[in-house]
Amino acid sequence: MSVINYTNQLAAEQAKQDAASKENESRAVFEELLNLYTVRATEANYALFKAWAYPLTFAAGEHLIKNKVPGFSPDLTSREEIIAELLEAYPKDERRNWGIRMSTWSLRQLRQERRDQFLRSTLKTSKQAGEYIAGIRKANQGSGYFDKNGIQWPRLLKTIVPKGEVQARDTREDLLWLAKNDIWTFKNRFVLIYGNEQVDSFLQNRV
Fold this sequence. Notes:
By secondary structure, the protein is mainly α. The protein is 65% helix and 5% strand. It has 10 helices and 4 strands, in the order αααααααββββααα.
């Protein structure tokens, strides 16, 4: 193989890896947006977000949702609709009690229940479940953080630029400061978005 052909092959492989990485990152962001906003979990909505911002970032997705950008019209749902769909999987005599319980859940918990229902309906053994989770982790390696339950969260970087500042700060230092001085931001901008397990790993200096 000539040097030129080899170089072209490497470039093609790198482009393929970059495209896969962008797709994985965009998918992870879309899943996180679903955990926080009542956007319907459809491929059409995912394609719409990517058409407006690709690779999709959490900031771009939030901007599109919150600012009602002209021309951007995702298919929306509601907590009530999500709960009604989830209850279809339960025996009729249990739906009332489960409905009362689900009414107290966060949107993230409701979305996770939907994923759990899918897994329960398709994966019948612990071996199948383990292989499924391992496959998902491998396919999305580097694009997100998986907790011990196999739930994927956006990956928290080791440095971060706090709001109102221009220089990056060590993430652990920023989290420790927020935990002591701004508990609302700590809970709603970090634990809620990145997951308690991942945040704790930074606080315990295990990253």
